[in-house]
Amino acid sequence: DAIAYLWKRLGTSCVHLDETHAVVKILRDLVEVLAPGAILLTETNVPHEENFSYFGDGDEARMVYQFSLAPLLLEAILTGDSRLLADWLAALEPTPPGTTTLNFTASHDGIGVRPLEGLMPIDRFERLLAAVERRGGRVSMKRNPDGADSPYELNITYFSAMDEPDEPDATQRESTQIARFLAGQAIMLSLRGIPTVYFHSLVATPNDEPGVARTGRARSMNRRKYQADELRDILSRADAPPARVLTAYRRLLAVRRAQPAFHPEADQRLLPTNSPATMALLRTSLDGRQRILVAANLGGSPETIEFQRQFSLRPIRDLLCDDPHAPTTGPIQLAPYQVAWLEVENPI
Q: Which residue intervals of the chain bear CATH 2.60.40.1180?
């Protein structure tokens, strides 16, 4: 945890020092001797390139938190514009052999925004901060060496972050929030790397304002502690968001587990689309026998994508459809905030 600040040396920033990387290498060697099946994971909530430096030359961390994903994904869904997210994903290089990333959208801390440095224009960044505050979140600051403060993390549950406060119809507002949230989770689950799911994402926990008031800490917003009977009662309401999200999430996980193309090291290729609201990526299993086309509509209007004409990809099975053998010929129609996992025909 926060390994970047391990070593202190006068006259330096005391972050990412050579000595710190040397300690990570030593820990890696010790782990591989004493616990060969264990994975050394580093947590460094810093800009993307600094974060990935903890892979070293394949001789440091086995796994690194993918910190840039959560804020980029959130901003893409709230704006209906996937381009920053897609461009970042397209530029990602495979990690060294035997290593991978830990993909996540939420944790017991806030959504770090330092990992957006160099990835998001300032005007879009400022709109993201405002959007979080409008949804009841907090923007926590850090003190810089020059004495000025700058945003460090967003304290909000990922479910509350997907709210649409301008929607006057309560039923539609709830449906939009659930659809947005599940779209983000489906994208996270489909990316190269290993996904990890925070408990509160499984049960669509809203912002814990009483927790913040009680502790005086903004991070309490996403740390609600349920009593067992309370949680059972919440989940017993089948039409409420917690039960609806949990049911959908369990299905996503069950489907994902069965797909070789979602192996952590399986190839990932971004495909261009014609609308800013849509994004697509192709995953290919290690043995090349399965390919899954992940198609997403992050906007509030229906979208059509013609993958067969554009890329000669012919979907043969919709893995998330109630009828997995439903016909998938012709253009792909995506409802607002829909993500499709389409198994495509392998080239002859």
A: 262-348
Question: How would you classify the pairing of strands 138-143 and 149-155?
Answer: antiparallel
Contact 21, 42 (CB under 8 A): no
Backbone angles phi, psi at 153, to 5 degrees: -155, 160
pLDDT confidence tier of residue 308, bands split at 50, 70 and 90: confident
Which is more confidently placed, 214 or 323?
214
Domain covering 262-348 in this structure, CATH number: 2.60.40.1180
Q: Which element (helix H / strand E) includes 305?
A: strand 303-305
Euclidean distance between CA atoms 88 and 138, whole angstroms: 26
| DSSP letters spanning 301-330 | S-EEE-HHHHH---EEEETTSSSTT----S
pLDDT band at 111 (very low <50, low <70, confident <90, very high): very high
Which member of 1, 18, 169, 229 is catalytic?
1
Ranges for all domains in the chain classified under CATH 3.20.20.80: 3-257
The more confident residue out of 327 and 38 is 38
pLDDT digits (tens, 9 = 90+) for 248-304: 999 999 999 999 999 999 999 999 999 999 999 999 999 999 999 999 999 999 999
Q: Is the pLDDT of residue 311 over 90?
A: no
- Contacts with 258 (C-beta within 8 Å, 6 or more apart), sequence order: none
Could you give phi then psi for residue 139, rounded to 5 degrees? Answer: -110, 110
Q: Measured over all CA atoms, what is the biggest interatomic distance in the chain, rounded to whole angstroms?
A: 66
To which CATH superfamily is domain 3-257 assigned?
A: Glycosidases (3.20.20.80)
Residue 1 annotated as catalytic = yes
Q: How many CB atoms lie within 10 A of CB 229?
A: 8
Across the chain, what does the average pLDDT equal?
A: 95
Q: Looking at this protein, which amino acid is placed at residue 39?
A: I
Query: Residue 313's closest CA among 278, 282, 268, 276?
Result: 282
Instruction: Tell me phi and psi for residue 346, to 5 degrees.
Output: -75, 145
Structure tokens at 121: 């224009």
Query: CA–CA separation, 109 vs 218, rounded Å?
Result: 9
